[in-house]
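Quick start: read one record
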Amino acid sequence: MIKLIRHCHLAEMSPCVATIGNFDGLHLGHFQLIEKMLKRAQALSLLPTVMTFEPLPQTLLRPEIQLLRLLSFRQKLRLLEKWGIKQVVCLRFNQKLARLSPLAFIEEYLINRINMRYLRVGEDFRFGHRQEGNIETLYQASTRFNFGIEPISLLQAKELKVSSTQIRRSLLEGELKTASALLGRHYSIIGRVIKGDQRGRTLDFPTANLAVKADNLIKGVFASWVQVGEEVYQGVTNVGTRPTVDGKKRLIEVHLLDYAGDLYGKRIAVEFLHKLRDEKRFENIEALKQQIAQDILQAKEWLAVSVAV
């Protein structure tokens, strides 16, 4: 079970090897960094610790830019636990923290609060007031505060820098395959099923409506895997405004194939595997029903091939 710490004090913290970052997306580069951090922690017999921030710093420092998150905080914890992390320190990012000088941040948080003995970060790591701190700052501080520091080279994949920014760009451009390659897994969301207007039942294709902030990174109709508890089902997922019906509110609706049961109140995970088509407006409900039937057929065919491969 992963341990989440929001308020930390030296008296309560075991000596640790740490890594620091937003870790939005937890992509292949993050995995490489955390894997190396875990190995160092094991070699030194120290507690491996991930330090992250909520809200993400960009939302405070660049409020004019609407940051589209790749992962919810719940998903982040879930994946870090899967990767083997036992402890996460989450700092509340506010103006006070943003104004700390790099040296003050190191002393107050890394040394006095989390009892850090060794640090592994990416070679482009920046921190402190106006992001004035960098790897050179950490090397200088390591002598004063007696901790080890080792930067990790940035990962490349298919001639692209593996970064959360590049993944967001790929998703917004409809390049689901590229985004998945950089993530090292399929892009996914987690949400609780709520009651919608039950219009899907009138179309003969009942859907599960997810109680999440409607995804703004992707849109369209997708073949997907849907995890319900410990079981995984094939599905067709629509992200959009349903232009044939009302064309206003952005929704995430999932139709599970070969599933019988009540999903209301359940938390489900949806993996987006393949884009079937863009969302579009149909002349009438009958034409929409015919297209949904075709979407399901195409999804089954694509999923069958992907499993075989």
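The CA atoms of residues 167 and 179 lie 5 Å apart.
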